[in-house]
User: Fold these one by one.
Assistant:
Number 1:
Amino acid sequence: MRMYRVPRHFGWSSSVIALLAMGLLCATVCTAQSSGSNGTSSSNPGSNSSGGSNSAPNGAGNAEKPRSQSGGPADAANDDPTSTRLRIVVLNFDGKPVPSASVYVRFNEAGGFLHKDKLAEMGFKTNDDGSVKVPSVPVGKILIQVVGKGVHSYGKWYDIVKDQEPIEIKLDKPVHWY
C-alpha cells in the first residue's frame, strides 16, 4: 500500500491564497463602509417629501456644501490639504528667464493595498517668461529637474508645504567640453 503525500508547495500556497482572499474581502468591506457614509441616502432627515412648499431653490436644505462658481479641478486641489499647486520660475546664470526649458516634477504616489509606492512624473515646458504652473502635487518631498538649451541641467529634492511661494531656480553656465 503506497501513501501519497501532498507536495510542499501546495501547503504554503493555500495559506497565501487565503490571506489574499481575506485582504480583498477586507478592502471591499472598508470601501463599502466609507462610500456609504457621505449622506447620500434617500431617507435624508432634512428633506421635505410631503409635497409642501419648496425650500430654497439653491438647495440650502441639503447637507452638502454648495460648490463654488468655477467648480473645476483646480478648486479641488485647493480644498485638498494633502496637495498644493506650485509655480516654478527658471532663470539662467544672468538672471534672465529660460524659455522652452523642460521641467520634470517627480513625487511618490501611494500604491495602495499590496502595491509598492511608485514615483509619479509630470513634465512641463516653461513659458517665455521662464515660469511653469504645476496643477497639483502632494505636500512633502518632490524632485524638480530642469533641462534647457544653453544651461546646465538641474535637479533637487524640495520639501513642499501648503501655500508655497514660487520656487525660483537659477541654472549655471553649461560645462565647456573640449
Number 2:
Amino acid sequence: MNVSKGEVAKSNDLQKAFGKSNVEEIVREVKEPTFHNLRKGHSLNIFPNPQILKKGEVQIGEKEREHDLTSLRKEIATLVAEKCVDPATQRPHPVGIIEKAMNEAGYSVKQTKNAKSQVSECIKLLQTESKLPIQRARMRIKVSIPVAKMESLKEQILEGAEKVEVEQTGQDDWEVVRDSGFHSSLMA
C-alpha cells in the first residue's frame, strides 16, 4: 500500500489490521482531531487526513517524551521534598537538591506510573543509595474513637508513637494527639 501513489489496502490486509474488510465500517471508527476557537465557534482540523484513534496507538515524539519525563521527575522530587526533611535541622530539602540526590542514587522514573506511586520507592532509594541525609517528616495525628472501642484499639493506636501529646477520656469518646510514627497500622 502506498497512499501517495493512490494505492489502497487490499481486503486481506484490512481484515488483518482491523478485523473487518468493509471500508465503510472502518471509516466509522475514524475521528478527526480538531482545535476549537471558542470565540468564533469555528473548528480547525489539525491533521490533513483523518486519523484512526479509537484503536490505534499515539506516537510521541522524542522531545515530548523527554519533556514528560523531566516534568514527572520534577513532580516526584517535589512530592519527596514535601514529605521529607533533613534529620539534623528538621527542615525540608530544596527540590533541586532532591533532584541531584535522585540522579546520584540512580533513580529511574517510570513513565507508566504516576508520581505519587513512585514517591515511596524514591525515598527508600535516597535513604540507602545517596549521601543526602533524609527522613520522612513527622506529623501529628489526632484519633477520636468511642469509649466502648477504646480498650480493644488503645494498644494499636499508641504503638510506634514516640510522643503522646494529649490523651483524654470523655463521657462518650477517647481522644489522643500523638506523633505519626509508624501510623500505617492505623490505616488498616
